[in-house]
Amino acid sequence: CTVRQWDSDEPVPRAELLAGVAGKQGLLCLLSDRIDKEVLDAAGSSLKVISTMSVGFDHLALHEIKKRGIRVGYTPDVLTDATAELSVALLLATCRRLPESVEEVKNGGWTTWKPLWMCGYGLSDSIVGIIGLGRIGQAVARRLKPFGVKKFLYAGSRPKPEIAAEFEAEFVPITRLAEESDFIVVTCTLTPETEGVCNKDFFCRMKKNSVFINTSRGAVVNQEDLYDALVNGQIAAAGLDVTTPEPLPTDHPLLSLKNCVILPHIGSATYATRNTMSVLAANNLLAGLKGEPMPSELLL
Q1: D-isomer specific 2-hydroxyacid dehydrogenase NAD-binding domain: from which residue to which, for each copy (predicted)?
Q2: Any idea what the CATH number is for the domain that residue 112 is in?
Q3: Do residue 107 and residue 249 come from a single domain?
Q4: Distance between CA atoms of 251 and 236, rounded to whole angstroms?
Q5: Cα torsion 144, 173, 155, 194: sign
Q6: Catalytic residue at 265?
């Protein structure tokens, strides 16, 4: 087959994407590429398969894609462990104030040992709430359990008793999860139901010493409400690997807060995981072009 490649780590410019996709049978894209009606129209009726190198698919206009009978491949499972590791790392960095502490060492703020200086919150004997007990949510719980977590709560579209049994996790309404959890980790899929679910009402229900972590999608969180909650001491701290938009503008208010740790969407960023994602995305594309079953097809 003939391949046209955008050979850069930077996102393909919109005009280049629209011109390049014309008349193509397959498209391999990243989550930074917005595949909407305009792109599909530019591709024309020849486009048969789209393969995205991501587990998320909110950048794809699925309604339009389904209407046109285009198959979609994606890369679930292979990034579960890496994203779960990052979620735990971000939680620990946030609750134990690691970025603040590093900065204090660099700027001379470390003068002597002080009883309460740089104190944070520990996981031992805590209640952890997980929003979205899917593959990544389960992997996060599995890694947090040895820290001595007292209880796991989870919220989502439906209870999952067989899965939750491993962690003795209790299915609760999201309001109760907010009220009772010491740590909240968001790992759910972005859907119309989850968009903006972590909002003012949610943060107002949280404990003042609680820590909020989001490694799902930025749009699950109302960032203005999160900023207010952090500034006003409604919650203790937040750690985000995902934001709206991405990248977050350098003058965004959240970046001015010491109690908010923000990472550049690196949940799956290990060499092994990204290589596996690349191979799976390519194999999905090739299988779709041949009319064969994809290794990982998103059923529309």
Answers
A1: 88-267
A2: 3.40.50.720
A3: yes
A4: 22
A5: negative
A6: yes
